[in-house]
Automatic annotation (TrEMBL):
Annotated keywords: Hydrolase
EC nos: 3.-.-.-
Species per Swiss-Prot/TrEMBL record: Streptosporangium jomthongense
Protein name: Serine hydrolase domain-containing protein
Beta-lactamase-related domain boundaries: 19-319
Length: 451
């Protein structure tokens, strides 16, 4: 563990102490991750007769979903599953077979939030065959793709997809392909000592009520795992991009892309592919919240500066929604990141001539060089379409983000080899506004500019 400054550590611990006392939590464990490693751990309260350690297990609820999603994305990268596949292709026999894998991952499939039957989180689970047999017309609540509607049932179906593709149960697949390679040996489907017991705290008295805990069976992929602060610190590093070979970093970045916003115009929260998203304090965060009777947990990671925060508590309710955001604020105030040192880099002469101002019609853009022959094209002094581009073997550039993501940028040269213009998916960029010497679609008025 790379320790933080003593003043930072004390400020973080005080925030944990305030949260545990004011929210009346039996115990609370929290951690900060930086640059792929656990940088700070703190706890308050007791588990049994001891303070929680970084190896004390708590139930993590829906954080389980993100780990299941990683195996789904591995199957996609292997070509065994397409995100546009209907779930019925892999798990036949449900009344929602037309819903796609991507829609289930992003909670946009329109499925009911909970399975039929009793409150599944507090009662023993049923086998997947029985769960599927119980599904009927009520399983669909909204047209697929129309809106965000969180569905625990959807991840039960994704867990069954994993099981059928791998020829084993979902938990063994996740353990073999995700947990073991990442060194998350204390993440398990059932509790393993030392572990916390789950409680409800009485709303009007300082007394506890033990909560039940069962094997959820078919619903287990929606929230069965137990884990520790140390293991979730590794998970936060994974979400931030330190993938350890489990997934290509580009695939994890794809999982972090917003697929749906869950709070309308505010856009403070949403979902990618198996990852929950949030915006807080100028940060774009990815991770997941988790809750089961007797437990709450959350992991957030900021891939922008490879920082993560997390907490685990053994209470059914009570945590303030701003806790981890305030932990990040403490970190930013007491120990802000130093900017990376600027250093010059080599650039090909043929690329240097492309830099500088370009014009899309009368709109001014600046083209800059990026590392590894990359390019950035962005408006000058105004809002507009900005994108980065990565060099391709055929001499073109492929858009990485923004409006031109996935589009091709080509440099068009004249007969003498000089640069005539840029062609960006039919849009022509010239060195002067509507350069008459370039191949501007529709031509340029022969009278030229006039007053």
């Amino acid at each position: 563990m790379s320790p933080l400054l003593e003043s930072t550590a004390r400020a973080l611990l005080r925030r944990v102490a305030v949260e545990q006392a004011e929210s009346r939590l039996p115990s609370l464990a929290a951690a900060v991750v930086r640059d792929g490693s656990l940088a700070w751990f703190g706890s308050r309260g007791l588990v049994g007769e001891e303070a929680p350690s970084r190896d004390t297990q708590y139930r993590i609820g829906s954080i389980t979903k993100s780990m299941v999603a990683v195996v789904v994305m591995r199957l996609r990268d292997e070509g065994r599953v397409d995100l546009l596949d209907p779930i019925g292709k892999h798990v036949p026999g449900t009344p929602v077979g037309e819903v796609t894998v991507a829609q289930l991952l992003s909670h946009t499939g329109g499925l009911t939030a909970e399975p039929p039957g009793q409150w599944w989180e507090r009662t023993p689970g049923v086998p997947v065959e029985e769960l599927i047999a119980r599904l009927g017309p009520q399983t669909s609540r909204h047209r697929p793709g129309r809106r965000f509607h969180y569905s625990n049932l959807g991840f039960a179906l994704l867990g069954e997809l994993v099981a059928r593709q791998r020829g084993t149960d979902w938990a063994r697949a996740v353990r073999a392909e995700v947990l073991q390679p990442l060194g998350m040996d204390r993440t398990t489907t059932r509790p393993s000592a030392p572990h916390a017991h789950g409680y409800a705290v009485h709303p009007w008295a300082d007394v506890l009520l033990p909560e039940p805990e069962h094997d959820a069976l078919a619903m287990a992929p929606a929230g069965q795992f137990w884990s520790t602060a140390a293991d979730l610190a590794r998970w936060a590093a994974f979400v931030a991009g330190d993938t350890g070979g489990v997934l290509d970093p580009a695939t994890v970045a794809e999982m972090r892309e917003p697929a749906i916003v869950d709070d309308g115009d505010a856009w403070t929260g949403g979902f990618g592919l198996g990852l929950q998203l949030a915006r807080a304090g100028g940060r774009r965060l990815a991770g997941h919240t988790g809750s089961m009777p007797g437990f709450l947990a959350t992991v957030w990671a900021d891939p922008g500066d490879r920082t993560g925060v997390l907490f685990l508590t053994n209470s059914t309710s009570g945590m303030s929604r701003t806790f981890l955001g305030e932990m990040l604020a403490v970190l930013d105030e007491h120990e802000p990141r130093m900017p990376a040192e600027w250093r010059p880099s080599a650039a090909e002469a043929g690329l240097l001539e492309l830099t500088g101002p370009w014009y899309w019609g009368p709109s001014a853009y600046a083209l800059r060089l990026l590392p590894d022959r990359g390019l950035s094209l962005a408006p000058i002094g105004a809002a507009g379409r900005a994108s980065r581009f990565v060099a391709q073997d055929d001499g073109t550039w492929l858009g990485l983000d923004g409006y031109y993501a996935g589009e091709r940028l080509s440099v068009v040269r004249g007969a003498d080899g000089s640069v005539s213009h840029l062609d960006l998916n039919t849009f022509v960029f010239t060195r002067t506004p509507y350069d008459p010497a370039a191949e501007v679609p529709g031509g340029v008025d022969e009278g030229g500019w006039r007053g």
